[in-house]
Design goal:
The protein is built from 13 helices and 15 strands. The protein is an alpha/beta fold. The strands form four sheets. The protein has a five-stranded mixed beta sheet. It has a five-stranded mixed beta sheet with strand order 13-12-11-14-15, sandwiched between helices. It has a three-stranded antiparallel beta sheet with strand order 1-3-2.
């Protein structure tokens, strides 16, 4: 317990002296010295210079050894896979984007997964290409990895291990995919819903740091949500909690065909057909505009007003069921609409017979999915690497 407390302090605060570690942990100087000697011998800490500029002998500084372990975090979309590799302190040392594998190959892989031969091989190739590229930039090989966390649309069914609610990701639905990726990368692999990871990023370093009950609503090409209650993600029986993109709403076609339907004519119905990026562009065109993207469309206040009205309708359904203390809006549409969109959504919700949560726009810098995946990978790796019992 003392070892773990000291390591967590060094991770969160950076280099510390033996005296300061003793003060923060309540350990005596001899015990702190023994602890640091033990951690140094285990390769978990190292010295990094001395404290200067004060009276008396200079004190040695200790830090977590960055090379004690490395993790990989990945974000998956229909266009490909982005991977980052970081050391155990969380410093990113390599990044690579790999284009998606051929979708025909991916579909063929899925077709043979019951035989256990070739399942997901196209997917494995694009994942390993992204990870290997990031490792190469860091000057590492696969043997350095201790944990890999992959963020994808949809969710793994805990009963079958199969990815559901993501028919637009061919090649990702094999029941043996996790085992295959683990064998290929030589490290434990976790596949997590991308919006859940974005919520973990908000909980760790974003708008939801002070909240145990919140909902993150992701408004992008598609729409989804992550529900955190009592500080814990709500996953649901099949992993599908928060798949509000398929939620029936007035004015939207029903999303039929089930969570694994492959591009049925109305599979894009539900809430996402009202507020996703394609819908935002359609709203703009109906107003006589010709925007290049959703950001340009949301520069027009009329578009903001209509998107806010539709978004508030969906949020009202979520708030009525979950009663969160905070709703965080994230994704490209939410970021493009910014504070103007937030204010208008709040105005649309005012007066409804509903609980009134706080409403915020995500303030995570960079890709929140990668941020959440990296945070998850680091927590899991540290649980193993920092265990000196």
């Amino acid at each position: 317990m003392n070892d773990r407390a000291a390591l967590e302090l060094l991770v969160s605060q950076g280099p510390l002296t033996r005296t300061r570690i003793g003060e923060l942990t309540g350990l005596s100087k001899p015990t702190a010295s023994q602890l640091l000697g033990r951690l140094e011998s285990a390769g978990l800490v190292r010295t990094t210079g001395n404290v200067t500029g004060r009276p008396g002998p200079s004190a040695q500084l200790y830090e977590v050894n960055p090379a004690a372990a490395y993790v990989a975090a990945l974000s998956v979309d229909p266009g490909g896979v982005t991977a980052v590799v970081a050391d155990i302190t969380g410093r990113v040392v390599g990044e690579r984007r790999a284009a998606a594998a051929d979708t025909v190959d991916g579909a063929a892989d899925d077709a043979v997964d019951t035989a256990g031969q070739g399942a997901g091989s196209a997917t494995a190739r694009v994942v390993t290409a992204a990870v290997d590229g990031a490792l190469e930039k860091a000057g590492l090989d696969r043997g350095a990895l201790h944990r890999v966390v992959i963020g994808t649309p949809g969710a793994l069914d805990p009963r079958t291990g199969e990815l559901r609610y993501a028919p637009h990701l061919p090649g990702w639905h094999s029941r043996t995919l996790l085992a295959e990726l683990g064998d290929a990368l030589g490290a434990p692999v976790v596949v997590e819903n991308d919006v859940n990871l974005a919520a973990l990023a908000e909980q760790y370093e974003g708008s939801a740091q002070d909240h145990d009950d919140f909902v993150l609503v992701w408004v992008d090409e598609g729409v989804g949500a992550a529900i955190v209650l009592g500080g814990t993600l709500l996953r649901g029986a099949t992993g599908g909690a928060g798949e509000i993109g398929y939620m029936p709403l007035p004015g939207a076609p029903l999303a039929r065909g089930g969570p694994d339907a492959a591009a049925a004519p109305d599979a894009g119905g539900g809430f996402q057909s009202l507020v996703g990026q394609p819908a935002v562009l359609e709203i703009a065109r109906e107003l006589g505009l010709d925007p290049a993207d959703s950001g340009a469309a949301l520069a027009d206040q009329r578009v903001v007003d209509e998107v806010a009205r539709r978004l508030a309708t969906g949020l009202a359904a979520v708030v009525a069921v979950v009663d969160p203390e905070l709703v965080v809006l994230s994704g490209l549409v939410a970021q493009a609409g910014g504070e103007r969109l937030r204010v208008r959504v709040e105005e649309e919700l005012t007066g409804l017979a509903l609980p009134r949560p706080q409403l915020r726009i995500s303030d995570i810098e960079g890709d929140p999915i990668l941020t959440g995946a990296l945070r998850t990978a680091l927590v899991q790796a540290r649980d193993v690497v920092f265990d000196t019992a």
